[in-house]
Amino acid sequence: MSMPETTSAPGAPVINMGTAIRDGLLEAARRDPSVIFFGEGVEDPAALFGTLKDIGKQIGHDRMIEMPIAENGLIGIAIGAAMAGKRPVVSLQRVEFALLALEQILNNAAKTHYVSNGRHNVPLVLRMIVGRGWGQGPEHSQSMEAIFAHVPGLKVIMPAFAEDAKGMIAAAVEDDNPVVVIEHRWSHYTTSPVAEGYVHRPLDGPRTVREGDGLTIVATSYMTLEAVRAADKLAEAGHPVEVLDLRVIRPLNLDPIVESVARTGRLLTVDTGFRMFGIGAEIASEVTSRCFDLLDAAPVRLGLPDHPTPSSRGLVKGFYPDATRIARTAAEMMGLDDAKISAIEEDILAARKDIPLDVPDPFFKGPF
Amino acid sequence: MSMPETTSAPGAPVINMGTAIRDGLLEAARRDPSVIFFGEGVEDPAALFGTLKDIGKQIGHDRMIEMPIAENGLIGIAIGAAMAGKRPVVSLQRVEFALLALEQILNNAAKTHYVSNGRHNVPLVLRMIVGRGWGQGPEHSQSMEAIFAHVPGLKVIMPAFAEDAKGMIAAAVEDDNPVVVIEHRWSHYTTSPVAEGYVHRPLDGPRTVREGDGLTIVATSYMTLEAVRAADKLAEAGHPVEVLDLRVIRPLNLDPIVESVARTGRLLTVDTGFRMFGIGAEIASEVTSRCFDLLDAAPVRLGLPDHPTPSSRGLVKGFYPDATRIARTAAEMMGLDDAKISAIEEDILAARKDIPLDVPDPFFKGPF
Amino acid sequence: MQTTTGDDADYRLRCLKQMLRIRLVEETIAERYAEQEMRCPVHLSIGQEASAVGVCDALMSDDRLFSSHRSHAHYLAKGGNLKAMMAEIYGKRDGCIGGRGGSMHLMDPDAGMMASIPIVASSIPLATGTALSDKFDNNGKVTVSFLGDACLEEGVFHESANFAKLRGLPIVYVCENNLYSVYTNLADRQPDRPLTDIPAAHGIEHRHVDGNDLEAVRKAALWAVETARSGNPTFLQLDTYRWREHCGPNYDNHIGYRTEEEFQIWRARDPLERYRKMLEESGTLAPASFAGLEKDIQAEVNGAFAFAIDSPLPEPTEALAHVYA
Amino acid sequence: MQTTTGDDADYRLRCLKQMLRIRLVEETIAERYAEQEMRCPVHLSIGQEASAVGVCDALMSDDRLFSSHRSHAHYLAKGGNLKAMMAEIYGKRDGCIGGRGGSMHLMDPDAGMMASIPIVASSIPLATGTALSDKFDNNGKVTVSFLGDACLEEGVFHESANFAKLRGLPIVYVCENNLYSVYTNLADRQPDRPLTDIPAAHGIEHRHVDGNDLEAVRKAALWAVETARSGNPTFLQLDTYRWREHCGPNYDNHIGYRTEEEFQIWRARDPLERYRKMLEESGTLAPASFAGLEKDIQAEVNGAFAFAIDSPLPEPTEALAHVYA
Ligand SMILES: Cc1ncc(C[n+]2csc(CCOP(=O)(O)OP(=O)(O)O)c2C)c(N)n1
Ligand SMILES: Cc1ncc(C[n+]2csc(CCOP(=O)(O)OP(=O)(O)O)c2C)c(N)n1
Ligand SMILES: [Mg+2]
Ligand SMILES: [Mg+2]
């Protein structure tokens, strides 16, 4: 399956999103000596899932700051360094570790520019990774973008594709605001051709990755990949739908979504967090208020059910939205008959073969 | 203006919500010796805005645990004590102080019952107070219920009326789950007759506090008071609207709201938090999906604008939704003409006299 | 666990068997992990058995224990059910918590094994909280909070220790210092000063002993537990070493964060082998009987694996239960 | 602030004036607070002036300072603009941050007064972060982090101190121990041990002096600042006392959390009066000249209040600016 990545450099090498992020960080750090990196194991052999690999070798080990295991303190220190002119990039292995630092993030990072009447800036990147799969369980797999999205002063981005991630991470580093970057472990594996050298993608809002008039799907992060897969099968079955990769959760730019829904009359949101009080609610509710008369049906939201994430592969069956569920929901919204829907579902399942539920599906790894 | 409080005991003494909460806590603690209290200044002269006044004198000072200024640790300690059979009630002077403890609250408090497969319970009450007014500013006035509402395993309640608060706080103490209680400082001042002795109000969902067919307003906490005021003026002008006090944010019981909207065809939400990615989005979006064909217009949400809360009374003008804004929004949704709307607004403003913006309006203090 | 107050030979054999049992369970996990049927992260304690066993042997069965991501040894030493542990790691319905948590969340409340929490230091205040409750109830229970060297960096340890001393809580903080947090050496995370300066700063009495010496650990633990029981929180620093990778079944001395040489020094301090020798030399253990112990225990371990493998996966609908009590 | 390297008389008069100025500003706030025109919480430092002044006199003007909810004295001692401070407290457009924060958020970055943060201990890591940045830039700057006694209870202090020592950061942690957090005595929040055991546990050099003795504070601060400048973080414990209520303009010794007697003991240690006497006795200050100083400074203070009162309220639309840079 080909990824909807219109690379800026045809024939560019195919790499995965994790590597692309690493390359983007390195390029940004090379261009600006004030960029410094914080991480627990910032230069260790695992290099934050490879996303910081050899950066210290390239830009100098003094710019790589090993964090003691003290997230609240160290993120506060990064904020202070940002106030003094540095551009710290903090990388956390899991979203959950940021929970210890929410006072620093939600108050000092988010509000210092505002409270200081514009006197201080906090140019900070806070990378955190969603650890789905392999039984990670309740405290190592949460997504939590809804928390950060609620807070004015933060930017929140969730890249899904390799080249886009490379350009967005550079833009995040260059941004004068605190930018929370939520990266899904399974998106890290997505491969596509990625332009070499410096790439910049503005943090400006959603991007259309599939076109169609049947319905508008707004997806985030890894769910965009599942949505694309569903969309491709729906298109094959004669029902093309539009898929927008949300990319930037805050500030939220709904214009392209409204424009699409005005055309399709139907909205489906799919995200990686808990569905209740999740980001889909804001999108659905705001799009409803802007397109009420153009909607054929109420928007539908997919997300995680209302319980913590269990570890066992027995228990997570059905926990995560996937291409089949997205396809079925979309098809039902478009009024397809059940036989047709089942055929599409089976088609998707067949492509998936019997890959276990708790490891990433290799479908989004080229070749192209 | 009379409050929509149908006291269970006609002729009961009129007290304010802060006192009612204190009485409810004391009754609950008297009935169960495992109830213990944590607070910074838990027995100091201010007694958490009076809400813990003399409780130690009544139940024994050993049950009053002075918290060092260490919210993450002490809330974790309260969770541990709950796992061992105590029913700790932790009281925080400001919602913001809980930000330091979100790892403990969102992981250990919320998930321990689930992860333990039901072996452990965490019967914990976490009271936190919204500090609006008198220039409290960006870090002493936030509401943040959207964060807690997102997390399965927590209960989240926001009482608005005195007797209801008394009964709900007792129910929270008796609940075997962690219950986050967000109390608005300005709701503390609401007075109404409150039944003496033990009162229990189940944490079961919204309560209708005004009836009408023009529109359904769902409000939380202090905003319910502003909504009631707006509703009364609208009713006087011949346009009665329904006001539901949401009371319980999680678990969210939308049935009474759906039932009301099915009748009125219009929904307006008003809450105390930031509007974007706030709790109104979940309500609006879910009600839309359940009443799509019955809706005359898209739901409208009121909440705080997308910036931190400034301190100066010059800057907070217009920051908080109030009765005039609620009345105008509701009236516009119902299609009233502008002259009529302006008259209603002026009527409300006149009643308000020239009380400054940054102190609570005494309108909701009896006499009745 | 100190179930009887037998004579010295009793506890020595008991502790030896306990260490051997933990070793064999974890070696078997390591061996079979590549089968990809234990589908959750595992953090093995191989090489660190003396601290778990020495400390838990000083506890009563209804004393309490809290652990972290590296919980297997603590769970077993505290008397946690082996079959339920293996079923949990296999993600099965008969797991100690029905497959909800996997290896990082092991618990067996009936055995006083209250909880394991994989967020670093996050279980420390919970342990302090049960100690507070037990002090209220005046029930004589002690809580042990196992923590890694990295936990001294997390603020919540300090917050908890301050409170424990302030209130005189029956808690023992046991710091297993294995010199690393994942791949990062202690020297890259904390300044060079004795770790025990930290409890000292909170006014907490402390001992620092060789964590690979069962006798030394047990003796220090007996002091720590009894001191705590009388209302004085205590702190133990136990120096030890994890043999295998931070997370997973393999050795990783070749990848560059530590040296083979350092590993070999610690390998030579194997707490199990050392204790076996001591017991053989002192005559507590008959020369040929160790092999027999090994055989018997391995049989039990194999049985537990078989039980786990045979246990059914939970049904997805079971995931809906117990969100609220 | 140490602007010139004058002789002793210079710094003494400078420090006396600075303490007097802070006292008069805060007394005037206290006096006029009942007018209800300063519509934000105020935490006065009356009685604590020597610590702010003694520490800041050891700083260069481009050294940095972070403060807490109780920031007036720090702001003024560091050279923050008085008119902008008063306008901020009055919620006016000419406030140092345009009325956005009020008394609890005072800052004047041009004077190195980086920020005041009203969440207890929350500014400590920020201060540690500017020290990290300055060390990178090798610019010779020192950061001072003022903190109350309660901050030692918050984990984030420990996390910051551990890192400061680990990296050798140019930071001075100044603990103003006024014995209380709101209404709660230190003894009800921390165990009985020297507060300086805490920095010691993190390997940080420290001094403990009388915080109401300007000379002692300044001397300790000179040591602390120069030690920090050379890459060794330091910690000062300065014992002092707040005369008035925690938040607000009144005295509150009658409400029961502390005794009038305790207050009187500390009242007698008034850092300003004590220093004035000393300077008079040593001949640095001419006997009659204090009244003149008072008059001049009060005139300046009155001017600042008049400026604040005359300044317009900001317009609501101004609240929309600066959400994002
Ligand atoms: C708050 C938090 N930060 C980071 C991690 C990632 N992490 C998992 S285990 C671990 C190492 C902790 O080291 P230590 O406490 O010494 O225990 P050890 O693994 O050596 O037994 C880390 C950093 C985590 N789980 N939680
Ligand atoms: C995290 C947090 N918890 C509680 C408070 C409430 N609070 C405001 S000031 C204060 C007292 C702090 O005492 P200390 O640090 O000694 O400073 P002092 O007021 O004595 O100058 C407290 C508890 C807060 N602002 N932030
Ligand atoms: Mg370790
Ligand atoms: Mg104090």
Short description:
The complex is a heterotetramer, with 2 copies of chain A (368 residues) and 2 copies of chain C (325 residues). Chain A is an alpha/beta fold.
Commentary on this structure:
The complex is a heterotetramer, with two copies of chain A (about 375 residues) and two copies of chain C (about 325 residues). Chain A has two domains: about 15-195, Thiamin diphosphate (ThDP)-binding fold, Pyr/PP domains (Rossmann fold, 3-Layer(aba) Sandwich), CATH 3.40.50; about 205-350, Rossmann fold (3-Layer(aba) Sandwich), CATH 3.40.50. Helices cover about 35% and strands about 15% of the residues of chain A. Chain A is built from twelve helices and 14 strands. Chain A has a seven-stranded mixed β-sheet with strand order 3-2-4-5-7-6-12, with helices on both faces. Chain C is about 40% helix and about 10% strand. The longest helix of chain C has 25 residues, at about 10-30. Chain C is globular, with a radius of gyration of 19 Å. Mean pLDDT of chain C is about 95; it is low at about 1-5. At the A-B interface, helix 4, helix 5 and helix 10 of A face helix 4, helix 5 and helix 10 of B. The structure holds thiamine diphosphate (TPP) (2 copies) and magnesium ion (MG) (2 copies). One magnesium ion (MG) binds near residues 148, 149, 150, 178 and 181 of chain C.
Keywords, separated by commas or semicolons:
heterotetramer; A: 368 residues; alpha/beta; Rossmann fold; 2 domains; seven-stranded mixed β-sheet; five-stranded mixed β-sheet; 12 helices; 17% strand; globular; C: 325 residues; six-stranded parallel β-sheet; two-stranded antiparallel ribbon; 42% helix; disordered N terminus; binds thiamine diphosphate; binds magnesium ion
Q: What name is given to the CATH topology of chain C? A: Rossmann fold
What is the molecular shape of chain A? globular
Topology as H/E string of chain C?
HHEHHEHEHEEEHEHEHHH
Biggest interface found: A-B, 50 and 50 residues
Instruction: Please estimate the helix content of chain C.
Output: 40-55%
Secondary-structure arrangement, i.e. CATH architecture of the largest domain in chain A: 3-Layer(aba) Sandwich
